[in-house]
Amino acid sequence: MKCFERAALPNLTDEERKKNVHFVVIGGGPTGVEFAAELHDFVNEDLAKLYPDVKKYVNISVIEAGEHILTMFDKRITHFAEDKFKRTGIDLKTNFKVVKVSDKTITMSNPTTGEIAVPYGLAVWSTGIGTRPIIMDFMKQVGQVYLGLHP
Fold first, then answer.
1. Coiled-coil segments, which residues (predicted)?
2. Residue 147 lies in a domain
3. β-pairing, 105-110 with 114-119?
């Protein structure tokens, strides 16, 4: 809501409006994909009614380091979700790794394009889960075996 309120201020340029309502989700797993889809619905079904002049500036981006989103599921689910995002206008950036986050931009890197910095209004970090290195070291010291995902 705060991003929409800022974007609705009368003294902003179009670029400033776009920045304020550029929502970036980092991570294409189940949580990131669900958040992006719910945010899209919230923007289009609710906020567009409250802020009709701001709606045209909204951009929702999902940044995923791998080739596809939802890689832990059957490929049919992956392709369905990617196609749905394309149809609804959610910008899917695969094969990009986030290398820096500042208060104004997110910098991502791709082997083909190099580094790209994009301005944003709200970022949601939803990348993988794993045990912190200090805990991993402690577990080794006490003879525990880690059976989950590796960071």
1. none
2. no
3. antiparallel
* Nearest Cα residue to 135 out of 150, 121, 120: 150
- Supply the CATH number for residue 91's domain: 3.50.50.60
The reported pLDDT for the residue numbered 46 is 96
Q: Which domain holds residue 105?
A: 2-141
Tell whether 146 is covered by a domain.
no
Q: Which residue from 31, 36, 87 is spatially nearest to 62, judged by alpha carbons?
A: 36
Contact assessment for residue 23 and residue 122, using Cβ atoms and an 8 Å cutoff: yes
Q: What is the pLDDT of residues 70-99, one digit of tens each?
A: 988 899 999 999 999 999 999 999 999 999
- d(C-alpha 96, C-alpha 112), whole Å: 10
